[in-house]
Amino acid sequence: MIESGRGNPTRRSRLIVLAGPTAVGKGTVAADVRRTHPEVWLSVSATTRPPRPGEENGVHYWFVSDEEFDAMIAKGDLLEWAVVHKAARYGTPRGPVDLALASGHPAMLEIDLQGARQVRETMPDALFVFLKPPSWEELVRRLVGRGTESEAERERRLETARAELAAESEFDVTIVNHEVHAAAEQLVSLMVGSNSSSSD
Question: Binding site annotation covers 134?
C-alpha cells in the first residue's frame, strides 16, 4: 500500500505507460487502480468513437468530434494519438499529464500500442508496462464475452491483437492479467518502486 496520497512538489514523478492487446483488460485494471488507489493519477484519453453503454464523458474518455480532435492535433495538445482498429482516433491530452508529473503524484497512461510507441519517442524515461492475457484463447473469450462489438469489429480487433502481442519485447515489464485486482496491485507496486527510486 502507498502510505500517503500527497504528491511531492519537489520531485517530478516518473510516468507509467500501460499498454497491451485489445480486450486484455487494460481499462478494467485501470479502473481498479482508480477505485483502490485514489492517490494515483490516471490520464483520461480523448476519442472520436461514440460512448459504450455506461461510459461517462470526462471519466472513461473525453468523447470529441472529428473536428475537435483535428483542432487538438493542430494545437499540439496531444502527447500521442493514433487511429485504433482502423476506425476511431484516440489521443492523450498533454497538459494534464505534465501537471500530474510536476506535482509528484504517481501518474499512469492506459493507451494502445501505437500511442505507447509515440510516448517512448517523447518521454523515453517513462516505465512501459505490457499487460498480457493468460492465453490467446482467454483473450478471444474476453472479447466475445464483452458483447460490445459486431462480428466484423471483433475480427478487426483480433487482427490488431495478434500484432500487439508480438510487441511485448518492446516493453520494460510484463504483467499477466490472470485476475484484475492482482494485476492492478502489481501495477501500483511498480509505480511506487519507480517513483521512490527516480531522481530529480
Answer: no
